[in-house]
Amino acid sequence: MAVMAGATARRGEAAFFVNSALAFACAELLTAALHECGHGLVAQALGFAPKIYGFHENNPTGSAAQTLAILAAGPLLSLFLGAGFWVWYARAKPHYRFGRLLLLWLALLGVMEFVNYLIVTPWLSGGDTGQFADVLGWPVAGRYAVAAVGVAMLTALARPAAAAIFGVAPQGVPLDTGSARRRFILRGFYLPLGVGVVLTALAGARTAPVYLLYGLLGTFGNIDIVVAAMYAGRAAPAAAERGASDAPLRVEPAGIALYAVLVLVYVLFFSRGVPI
Fold first, then answer.
1. CB of 33 within 8 A of CB of 273?
2. Closest CA to 193 of 55, 12, 74, 19
3. Contact 65/138 with Cβ under 8 angstroms?
4. Chain-centre distance of CA 175, in angstroms?
5. Contact 167, 241 (CB under 8 A)
6. Do the domain assignments include residue 134?
7. Residue 4 has what pLDDT?
8. Residue 111's domain spans which residues?
9. For residues 164-194, b (16+ Cβ closer than 10 Å) or e, as one string?
């Protein structure tokens, strides 16, 4: 019986790993597209005719004020949507469902799209915040101050992120010790994120290498919130917080189908540019 229980637990852990990697890749592809739509919608409102691509938007050149508005629109829309997804996720009782796992990744990635742009301001000149700083002529000290704000936000988000992650843990996953909680985040989020980056790269098969590289750097950069959550030191959730309506732990066909559709949309449409 113990051998059978162990085999069942391993199959469940493997299924959660695959589902998390699929959910991460789907959430990243959706988040990236919505981020570029933010740039494009503001550019269109200002009278330009932009196109959005998988991992970039052909930012038009206008006045300083127009350029700043277009640059700011992507990160701000990501933050707004990510915060909205986070509130939506938090309103449900803790339980496991693939859709809930996808919603969690959408929340984390949306918020971190904004936070990570702040963090890389001094170093990523081609990023939205780096270009924003260039237009305003910020000194090096100012750019590092923005990065410090980003790091402070990451630190503040560590415990809420850990709580959110534990809220999707399936029944039976041990979370009673610090090492067990770190192991769950490691196997259920940290390692799947690496696989999810590879899955995300497949959607950029027809994207210019430089933009794909930037996109993948941003994608992998989300490892910071996972690591922060891993060491946040949150207490284990009570048994009553674990929910009793978990879905069966299996590799989700819906996750595979959603990922396949998103890859096709990226390869067939976003690779050529979509007018907005």
1. no
2. 19
3. no
4. 24
5. yes
6. yes
7. 39
8. 81-269
9. bbbbbbbeebebeeeeebbbbbebbbbebbe
In the block, tokens 């493997």 appear at: 14
Q: Going residue by residue through the chain (276 aa), what tens digit of pLDDT does each one get?
A: 434 345 566 888 999 999 999 999 999 999 999 999 999 999 999 999 999 998 998 877 789 999 999 999 999 999 999 999 999 999 998 999 999 999 999 999 999 999 999 999 999 999 999 999 999 999 999 999 999 999 999 999 999 999 999 999 998 898 989 999 999 999 999 999 999 999 999 999 999 999 999 999 999 999 999 999 999 866 666 655 555 678 889 999 999 999 999 999 999 999 999 998
- How far is residue 39's CA from residue 50's CA, in Å, rounded to a whole number? 9
CA atoms within 13 A on the CB side of 48: 20
| Exposed/middle/buried for residue 157 (C-beta within 10 Å: 0-12, 13-18, 19+) | buried
Give the model's pLDDT for residue 244. 61
- Provide the residue count of the chain: 276
User: Do 109 and 222 form a contact (C-beta atoms < 8 A)?
Assistant: yes
As given in the structure block, the two tokens for residue 56 are 């970039």
Q: Which tokens in the block code for residue 226?
A: 């996972």
Contact of 118 with 149, CB cutoff 8 Å: yes
In a domain, 229, yes or no: yes
**235 within a domain of the structure (yes/no):** yes
Contact 54, 69 (CB under 8 A): no
Residue 4 belongs to a domain: no
Token pair for 20: 């998390």
Provide the 10 A C-beta neighbour count for residue 133. Answer: 20
Query: Per the structure, how many domains does the chain have?
Result: 1
Tally of helices (H runs) and strands (E runs) in the chain: 10, 2
CB atoms within 10 A of CB 213: 14
Token digits of residue 23 = 């959910």
